[in-house]
Each structure stands twice: as C-alpha cells, then as structure tokens.
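Sanity check

After download, print the first record. It should look like this:
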Amino acid sequence: MQDLLDMLNEGRVHVKVEMNAEDLKAFSEDLIRRAKDELGSMVEAAKKERMLTKAEVKELFGVCDATLWHWANKGILKPVKTGNKIMYPEYEVRKALGQRNINI
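Expected structure tokens:
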C-alpha cells in the first residue's frame, strides 16, 4: 500500500493498479484516516485562532457596517459567520491592517 502512495507522490501521471478488494478497502480506509487527521488538526488550529467581533473591527478601522460588507464582497476582509454572529479571524484583520499600515 505504501508503494502506491509513493508512486502517487512521485508524480507519476499514468498509474494502473490492480488489487484485490481487501487491499482496496485498506487503501480507502487509510485515505479516510489521513483526511480525518488533517481536518482535525485544521479544526483545532481554527479553534485557537482569536476572533474579533464586528464592533471591534469597525473601531479598529474607523468604518461602518456598509464598508465591512463591501470589503467582504471584494475579498478585502473575509468574515466568518458563527451562528448568527459575524466574526473576523485575527489573521485576516492583521492582513487588512497591514495593507492600510495600521497597528493593533
């Protein structure tokens, strides 16, 4: 099974594989496990990320709700909706502040 992953990682474009059902099942279970592990680590990192409220962001930039809405549509500052609240990841705010030369 590891040989197949090695071949795929090496970038071989044309690969023909023959395997029995047991090996195919093991391969798919391994892929699922890897995807879950990767997703789990991404979720944990996101949980640790500080989120700012809309009010905090408006105060930092000195802008109104409409400006934040326009920025979201233009991809300047991307909000994250959690339930019925709109929050802004700190890294997104820092990136936007850096473009405007403002410090937190």
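If your output differs, re-run the checksum step. Summary of this record's structure: The longest helix spans residues 21-48.
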